Amino acid sequence: MNINKELNLSKKIIYDITRFTTLDYKDNLSCIVWFISCNMRCQYCYNSNIVLSKEGNYEIKDLFTFLEKRVGLLDAVVLSGGEATMHNLEPICKKIKAMGFKIKLDTNGLNTKLIKTLIDEKYIDYIALDFKATKDKFEEITKTNQYNKFLDTLNFLIDKNFDFEVRTTLHEELLNENDINKIVDTLVSKGYKNSLYIQNFLNVENFANLKESKKVLNKDLLSNKLNIIWRN
Q1: What's phi and psi for 59, nearest 5 deg?
Q2: Which CATH number is 3-231 given?
Q3: What is the pLDDT of residue 1?
Q4: Could you tell me where the DSSP H helices lie in the chain?
Q5: Is the dihedral angle over the CA atoms 92, 108, 39, 15 positive or is it negative?
Q6: The pTM of the whole model exceeds 0.85
Q7: Which of 81, 123, 196, 200 could join 118 via S-S bond, C-beta 3.0 to 4.6 A?
Q8: Whole-number Å distance between alpha carbons of 79 and 72
């Protein structure tokens, strides 16, 4: 099939493009592509405008027009959202890679089939996988009952020995020390050996109207089975 037809260049599925970042993909100068829509409704999510958008602000062809001007200037493209894997990423990644960029994917891990394809075709180089919650709190926090789909992706990435990180967003009203330790135990039991990145809740407008928690996590009670790195 013609790649331009596969790409559906006129479809507005991109909410925004961050043109320059040194933070989102370590050791790589990157841009971030924010795709609309998501198959979760996480209580702490502050990207509700992106998640709920029926149409984005940019067409796929706008992305490639931008990237053509960044060849040799940027190292990588970060695909984020929303949830990027709700869209047909295969032809998009194929074209991005053909332009010489690395690709990092931010994902909740629910679309294991697409993630497998992107990795098998060598279209992506790195993944940031969100571990949203423990099994018993997963549906409460994400408003989905797809915990096992997330585990399928986690297992695949570990078995494949793919280059990826796991990250968890912390709001102390939703997750406590015991929950973080359960997440660590799950990762260790699956054979994950990299760091667990914990990113603090940002006190901005979000789905559940959460405010800054009055609870404070006691880091001394956290497991030392994995290296935990705190962000923001």
Answers
A1: -85, 160
A2: 3.20.20.70
A3: 43
A4: 3-7, 48-51, 60-68, 89-98, 112-120, 138-142, 147-160, 177-190
A5: negative
A6: yes
A7: 123
A8: 19
